[in-house]
Amino acid sequence: MKDKIISTTVHVFRWDELNDGQRSLLEAAKQMTQQAYCPYSRFSVGAAALLQDGTVVRGSNQENAAYPSGLCAERTTLFAANANYPDTPVVALAIACRKPSGFTLQPGSPCGGCRQVMIETEHRFGVPIEVMLYGENEVYVFDRASDLLPYGFFAEDLA
Ligand code: THU
Q1: Is the beta carbon of 62 within 6 A of some atom in ligand 1?
Q2: Which of 43, 60, 71, 148 maximizes ligand 1 atoms within 8 Å of its Cβ, making it the mutation to test the pocket?
Q3: Rounded Cα distance, 52 and 16, in Å
Q4: Model pTM score
Q5: Atom 6 of ligand 1: nearest residue by CA position
Q6: Catalytic-residue membership of 74
Q7: Quick one: what percent of the chain has pLDDT higher than 90?
Q8: Residue ranges of domains in the chain
Q9: Nearest CA owner, ligand 1 atom 10
Q10: Hey, what long-range contacts does 61-67 have (CB within 8 A, 24 or more apart)?
Q11: Is residue 64 within 6 Å of ligand 1 at its C-beta?
């Protein structure tokens, strides 16, 4: 038996250390929490995807009385981006989470299903997606979606 270490890197930023483009995409994600449909969890998630041509696609979590029928903000956003602009790579994705008491102090952690969709979007276009997770105290920046899901599952694994 031997061990393999699977590691990842996240950059931790203060708000004032981010560049204007990062801040503006994060602001869009924060704004989108206002439009979340989350009457059951009261946990509002907003997301904004920047496409390579500068287009910004926005989304939020959409819940349903039949709970599993709902969808997270990240997937709502990436599926909308890929449905409307199937030939344009996504280059950045910003996410913000808000409770009734306010935005989370620490960056929200995207669920496993959303990470899987992020890496497929990244892989399909062959362009890294910078993923930014907003927290009131600090912002996490991953250089590529696959850094959120090391040892991920891809189409090649089906072969
Ligand atoms: N949620 C997201 O939108 N993104 C995540 O990555 C985690 C969870 C949503 C789903 C549900 O509407 C609410 O947050 C509580 O789980």
Answers
A1: no
A2: 43
A3: 25
A4: 0.97
A5: 110
A6: yes
A7: 99
A8: 10-15+23-52+62-84+100-127
A9: 72
A10: 61/36, 61/37, 62/36, 62/37, 63/37, 63/38, 63/39, 65/40, 67/40
A11: no
Q: Where residue 65 falls among pLDDT bands split at 50, 70, 90?
A: very high
- Mean pLDDT, residues 9-34 taken together: 98
Q: Which CATH architecture has domain 10-15+23-52+62-84+100-127?
A: 3-Layer(aba) Sandwich (3.40)
Q: What residue owns the CA closest to ligand 1's atom 13?
A: 43
Active-site pick, 74, 122, 130, 136: 74
